Amino acid sequence: MSALVHLRNLTKTYQRGPEKVEVLHGIDLDIARGDFAALMGPSGSGKTTLLNLIGGLDSPSSGEIEVDGKRIDKMTSGQLSQWRSDHVGFVFQFYNLMPTLTAQKNVELPLLLTKLSAAQRKRNAEIALELVGLKDRGKHRPAELSGGQQQRVAIARAIVSDPTLLICDEPTGDLDRQSAEEILGLLQRLNRDHGKTIVMVTHDPKAAEYATHTLHLDKGTLVEQVEHA
Q1: Parallel/antiparallel/unpaired status of strands 3-16 and 165-169
Q2: DSSP characters for the chain?
Q3: Residue 190 burial (10 A CB sphere; 0-12, 13-18, 19+)
Q4: Residue spans per domain, the chain
Q5: Coiled-coil intervals in this record (predicted)?
């Protein structure tokens, strides 16, 4: 299976006052198309930094980031913005839904940047909501939904543009165990049944078990990869 994400000698350094702090040190990593990779490691290990680089939310200090054959580390900020819109869906710990909009209108938001008609945007949002099990909740606002349902809306919003890559940062970190397992099961189905490539940061070993493999980071270095049976 070909690599969708290809990282070589990736580093990231931040300037904190007079001091330079290297968060990632020479990361080499391939994530195959159709993989579900969990990123784990202690606080400060560089998990979210690596996730943000793969998703084009940040740029490396050095090294190569190739996603689906495109060198995103060479893109301008404008090109990166368009690339993210076309190819990446994001799911965060705190759902980031617009409280005044219905679930359906929240899901439609990424489509406002496309040339789709209002009717087609509505139809695509309905399909995405049905896929996450919320066909009958499209007219509800976030305050009328449980935390798990809100995260399902956020996932529907992330997949409505049919992205190549799903980037998930602690997607179950704000949920109770039952809701978390439902969300993880949904992500697993999107991976297995719909071929979505997923990279997920989590601190929860049980959450990582839903992935096809786990990547362990420590002090900015990739120290272990574990394949799941």
Answers
A1: unpaired
A2: --EEEEEEEEEEEEEETTEEEEEEEEEEEEEETT-EEEEE-STTSSHHHHHHHHTTSS--SEEEEEETTEEGGG--HHHHHHHHHHHEEEEESS----TTS-HHHHHHGGGGGSS--HHHHHHHHHHHHHHTT-GGGTT--GGGS-HHHHHHHHHHHHHTT--SEEEEESTTTTS-HHHHHHHHHHHHHHHHHH--EEEEE-S-HHHHTTSSEEEEEETTEEEEEEE--
A3: buried
A4: 3-227
A5: none
> Both tokens of residue 99?
């409280």
Tens digits of pLDDT across the chain (229 residues): 578 999 999 999 988 888 888 899 999 999 999 999 999 988 888 899 999 999 999 999 999 999 998 999 999 989 998 899 889 999 987 888 999 999 999 999 999 888 889 999 999 999 999 989 998 999 999 999 998 899 899 999 999 999 989 999 998 887 888 888 988 998 999 999 999 999 999 988 999 999 999 999 998 888 877 777 6
Q: Could you give the CA distance from residue 66 to residue 72 in angstroms, rounded to a whole number?
A: 6
CA dihedral in degrees (104, 108, 109, 115; nearest 10)?
-160
Q: How many CB atoms lie within 10 A of CB 104?
A: 20
Question: Phi, psi at residue 22, to the nearest 5°?
Answer: -85, 115
The tokens describing 146, both together, are 């449980």
Instruction: Domain 3-227: give its CATH architecture.
Output: 3-Layer(aba) Sandwich (3.40)
